[in-house]
């Protein structure tokens, strides 16, 4: 059997915004991959970068464990891994290079390796897994177990969804009939992480302890800015009773106070949530989910309440129907307002994910988002700027405009990396105003109206493209 060190490269200390937010979660997909390798009876260790001080900690682990294989399996349930922040990409490449220098065979997997395998192969990876890659991973590990120094060409021969370097050129290997994807282990390898370190971090910053779960993988909707390099357009849902049992087990073993469900869409149908609630039988813990406004119907809101849902984050994105349609979002403003009202009627907190700077967005559209927040009064908002992710229609539209910078350095960057309507500083000002609206807990106070009006008055200095007369007239009218 092989000695395998499983790693990921998201260092909380490299992301100041998330460090201050103080809500770190263990790398769930990484722990699932580690559990899968254990099922095959390999000697598996883990390096968890999340709470590590620096890459030196990884090098210490590497020397102590002396692995024959190092697997970099990024947490596919963490949206920040999908974005591939620049500092994390550099960390991953440095870690790969160190593992290669130590004589280990190196495998890399994750959203960014799937989108840009050449970066990770150049750093020293033998193989990059494309997508979830679990079937190919098991096959590669089996081959390495029989011959650790097997040439790369033999290592990937006939396997689906892998990339490697052959004679200085990158080759993608696809099989006519893909291997069956193995089932994920029922229980992630929680014992490989320092749960107490997470507990202490949460207790010190939040006063309670939360762990993460996933009841599904993927999303079947097709918003044209959302990259899906891991699961594509599939929605793979677990059995509701199995998910309930996992929650109850986490509660008993780790005495957790809360669960964050990392699913892109939790539950999907009210019947599934009903079954989940029944299996918990009142014994679960409060939890937070992500969903869509058009899925929040009366039956869903009631089922979530019975199951113990504390908070729902909705992909509202914009208060402008024009922009929602341009995104191919498939939702409408009345659905967002209805979902917020329904959830609130059951005492469930509501957060809005908002996206600024999408193609065609003008000042009037931004102010429509302001008005949506003022009307709906969500309990929280998460504000981002349109981010071109490879593999999306949005990326294909703007890729010729991209310069050297194609990734944010950290999650607070908010740089516009294409020719948007406004410069980055303008969107940062809008973000701050939207957060202040929510913090005040009311619609639009006189003070906020003054601040919005001041921003509108000087918006021209931040423009990257000319204003349309109709757009400016509408913007002026909305703040007077």
Layout of secondary structure:
Blueprint: E1 3-7, H1 16-21, H2 28-39, E2 43-47, H3 55-65, E3 69-73, H4 79-83, H5 86-101, E4 105-109, H6 111-115, H7 117-123, E5 127-129, H8 134-146, H9 152-156, E6 162-166, E7 169-173, H10 195-205, E8 210-213, E9 216-218, E10 235-237, H11 240-254, E11 258-261, H12 270-280, E12 287-291, H13 298-307, E13 309-317, H14 321-326, H15 333-345, E14 349-356, H16 363-376, E15 380-385, H17 393-398, H18 424-440, H19 446-457, H20 469-478
Parallel strand pairs: 1-2, 1-3, 3-4, 4-5, 8-11, 11-12, 12-13, 13-14, 14-15
Antiparallel strand pairs: 5-6, 6-7, 9-10
Helix pairs in contact: 3-5, 11-12, 12-13, 16-18, 18-19
Q: CATH-wise, what's the superfamily of the largest domain?
A: Aldolase class I
For the record, what CATH class of the largest domain applies? Alpha Beta
Radius of gyration: 23 Å
Number of helices: 20
Keywords:
480 residues; alpha/beta; Rossmann fold; TIM Barrel; 7-stranded mixed β-sheet; 20 helices; 15 strands; 43% helix
Please describe what this structure looks like.
By secondary structure, the chain is of the alpha/beta class. It folds into 2 domains: 3-172, Rossmann fold (3-Layer(aba) Sandwich), CATH 3.40.50.280; 208-478, TIM Barrel (Alpha-Beta Barrel). Helix content is 43%, strand content 16%. The protein is built from 20 helices and 15 strands. β12 (287-291), α13 (298-307) and β13 (309-317) form a beta-alpha-beta unit. α3 runs parallel beside α5 and α18 (424-440) packs antiparallel against α19. The chain starts with a strand and ends with a helix. The model is unreliable at 469-480 (pLDDT under 50).
């Amino acid at each position: 059997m092989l000695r395998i060190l499983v790693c990921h490269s998201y260092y909380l200390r490299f992301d100041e915004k998330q460090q201050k937010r103080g809500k770190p979660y263990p790398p769930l997909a990484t722990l699932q991959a580690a559990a899968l390798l254990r099922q095959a009876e390999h000697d598996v260790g883990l390096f968890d970068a999340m709470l590590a001080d620096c890459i030196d900690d990884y090098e210490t682990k590497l020397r102590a464990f002396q692995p024959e294989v190092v697997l970099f399996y990024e947490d596919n349930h963490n949206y920040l891994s999908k974005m591939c922040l620049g500092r994390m990409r550099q960390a991953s490449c440095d870690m790969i290079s160190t593992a290669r220098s130590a004589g280990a065979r190196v495998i890399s997997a994750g959203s960014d390796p799937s989108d840009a395998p050449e970066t990770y192969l150049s750093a020293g990876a033998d193989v990059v897994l494309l997508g979830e890659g679990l079937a190919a991973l098991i096959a590669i590990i089996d081959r390495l177990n029989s011959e650790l120094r097997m040439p790369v060409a033999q290592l990937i021969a006939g396997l689906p969804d892998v990339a490697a370097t052959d004679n200085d050129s990158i080759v993608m290997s696809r099989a006519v009939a893909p291997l069956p994807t193995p089932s994920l282990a029922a229980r992630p390898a929680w014992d490989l992480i320092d749960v107490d370190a997470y507990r202490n971090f949460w207790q010190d910053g939040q006063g309670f302890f939360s762990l993460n779960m996933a009841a599904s993988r993927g999303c079947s909707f097709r918003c044209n800015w959302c990259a899906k390099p891991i699961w594509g357009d599939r929605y793979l849902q677990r059995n509701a009773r199995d998910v309930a049992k996992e929650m109850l087990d986490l509660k008993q073993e780790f005495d957790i106070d809360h669960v964050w469900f990392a699913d892109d869409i939790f539950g999907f149908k009210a019947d599934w949530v009903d079954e989940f609630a029944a299996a918990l039988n009142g014994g679960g813990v409060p939890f937070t989910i992500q969903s869509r406004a058009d899925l929040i119907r009366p039956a869903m809101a009631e089922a979530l309440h019975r199951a113990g849902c504390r908070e729902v984050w909705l992909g509202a994105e914009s208060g402008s129907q024009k922009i929602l349609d341009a995104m191919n979002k498939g939702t409408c403003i009345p659905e967002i307002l209805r979902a917020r009202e329904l959830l609130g009627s059951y005492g469930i907190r509501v957060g809005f994910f908002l996206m600024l700077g999408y193609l065609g967005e003008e000042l009037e559209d931004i102010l429509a988002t302001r008005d949506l927040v003022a009307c709906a009064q969500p309990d929280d908002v998460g504000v981002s700027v349109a981010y071109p992710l490879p593999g999306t229609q949005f990326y294909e539209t703007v890729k010729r405009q991209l310069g050297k910078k194609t990734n944010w350095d950290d999650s607070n960057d908010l740089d516009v990396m294409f020719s948007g309507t406004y410069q980055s500083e303008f969107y940062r000002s809008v973000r701050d105003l939207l957060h202040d609206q929510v913090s005040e807990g009311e619609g639009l106070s006189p003070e906020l109206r003054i601040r919005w009006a001041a921003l509108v008055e000087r918006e021209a200095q931040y423009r990257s493209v000319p204003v349309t007369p109709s757009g400016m007239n509408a913007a002026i009218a909305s703040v007077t």
